[in-house]
Every structure is written in structure tokens, then in C-alpha cells.
């Protein structure tokens, strides 16, 4: 059962971040960089994402207590947010919900785009942060948290490999292939968001479900 939980955590992370769908964005943001600079951007972005997700995982319970928010209320709101992001992916509007034109415009004036907008908010966006807080508050024992951190490191390592081979993958899949992958990830993400919401509603209103 623990292995199943970790697999579910990892699959959900891939679905909500959708690194395959972000490949064209990564290519466009690093198009003016040479190979070494692109690899450095890739490495820095994934390190930043790992830090963002781990902090969200470990500090989630403290943040909820600080603002007086119950776990079940947060699960319902977080599940709704995750489901909405999944819906936007199915409709082909991933970028519109994850970043704004101002984010991209500001990033173009900076030397590196690794932190903004690549790591935040494209990869470590509100959906991913919400998911980490929900997982961290549901499974808060030391063993589970260590396992989740390992999963985050594995995830970021996979993203690093994926972005490193971005030019080859885009040529292989083509635009249609990337769209198909994005929509499949969106469907998985919607199902995960609904499950999170149902769990929160069930615990908040025991007699309702």
C-alpha cells in the first residue's frame, strides 16, 4: 500500500506539472542560448522546483494552522484548483492558467529564465504547491515525508532528462503528439482533483456521501 501511495504521488506530480507539455515553452525560452547555457538553465530550474515543492510539502501544515484553515476546506479548494488546471490542459489552455504575459515579458529582460517563469509559476505553480500541501497534511509522518521528498527528487531528475532531450523529443512527437500527451495528463489531473474534493467533502460532511 505504501508503494501504491508513492506511485500515486509521483504520477499526480507528473500530471499536474505536465513537463512534456512544457517542452515547447522551455525551447522557446532558451532558444537564444547556447547548449551550455541551456543545460545550466535546465539544471537551475529543476533545483528551484525541488526546493519549492519540498518547502510546500514540509511547511503546508504550519501554513494552514497560521491562517486558521481546516484541512478538509483546503482539500476541497485545492482539489477544485487541480481539476480546473486539468480542464484547462484538456482544452489546450495550459499556458493561460500558469503564467501571464507580464511574467513572460519580465523574464525576457533577465539573463536567466530558470527561476521565472520556468520554475515559478510554470512548473512549481499553484496546482503543484496545493497538491504538496494536501499530501503533506494527509501523510505527515516522518517516513512518508522522506518518501515524498525522494519522489520529488526523482521527478525533478526526470524533468531534467526530459528538458535536456527537448529538441529531439519535439521533433519526434511533433505538435500533435504533444497536444495528445497534454490532454491525457489533463484528464488524469481532473480525476485526481475530483478525488481530492470528494475526500474533503466526505470528511467535512460525513452524512452527505
Summarize the structure.
The chain is built from ten helices and no strands. The protein has one domain (2-204). The chain is mostly helical.
Question: Overview of this structure, please?
Answer:
The chain is built from 10 helices and no strands. The chain has one domain. Helix 3 (35-67) packs across helix 7. Helices cover 83% and strands 0% of the residues. The protein has 209 residues and is mainly α. It is globular and about 55 Å long.
The average pLDDT is 82
Count the DSSP helices: 10
The portion of residues forming beta strands comes to under 5%
Based on CA atoms alone, the radius of gyration comes out at: 17 Å
**Number of E strands:** 0
Summarize this structure as a short list of keywords or feature phrases:
UPF0056 membrane protein; cell membrane; mainly alpha; 83% helix; 10 helices; single chain; 209 residues
What is the fold's blueprint, element by element?
Blueprint: H1 2-17, H2 23-29, H3 35-67, H4 71-90, H5 94-98, H6 101-108, H7 114-123, H8 126-138, H9 142-164, H10 166-204
Helix pairs in contact: 1-8, 1-9, 1-10, 2-10, 3-7, 3-8, 3-9, 4-8, 4-10
Amino acid at each position: 500500500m505504501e508503494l501504491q501511495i508513492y506511485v500515486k504521488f509521483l504520477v499526480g506530480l507528473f500530471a499536474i506539472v505536465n513537463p512534456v507539455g512544457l517542452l515547447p515553452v522551455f525551447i522557446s525560452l532558451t532558444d537564444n542560448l547556447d547548449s551550455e547555457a541551456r543545460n545550466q538553465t535546465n539544471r537551475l530550474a529543476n533545483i528551484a522546483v525541488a526546493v519549492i515543492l519540498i518547502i510546500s510539502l514540509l511547511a503546508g501544515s504550519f501554513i494552514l494552522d497560521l491562517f486558521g484553515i481546516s484541512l478538509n476546506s483546503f482539500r476541497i479548494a485545492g482539489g477544485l484548483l487541480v481539476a480546473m488546471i486539468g480542464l484547462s490542459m484538456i482544452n489546450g489552455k495550459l499556458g493561460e492558467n500558469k503564467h501571464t504575459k507580464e511574467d513572460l515579458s519580465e523574464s525576457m529582460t533577465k539573463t536567466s529564465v530558470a527561476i521565472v517563469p520556468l520554475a515559478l509559476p510554470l512548473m512549481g505553480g499553484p496546482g503543484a504547491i496545493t497538491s504538496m500541501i494536501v499530501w503533506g497534511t494527509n501523510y505527515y509522518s516522518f517516513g512518508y515525508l522522506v518518501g515524498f521528498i525522494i519522489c520529488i527528487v526523482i521527478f525533478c531528475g526526470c524533468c531534467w532528462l526530459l528538458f535536456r532531450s527537448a529538441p529531439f523529443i519535439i521533433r519526434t512527437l511533433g505538435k500533435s503528439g504533444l497536444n495528445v500527451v497534454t490532454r491525457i495528463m489533463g484528464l488524469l489531473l481532473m480525476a485526481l482533483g475530483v478525488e481530492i474534493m470528494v475526500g474533503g467533502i466526505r470528511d467535512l460532511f460525513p452524512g452527505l456521501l
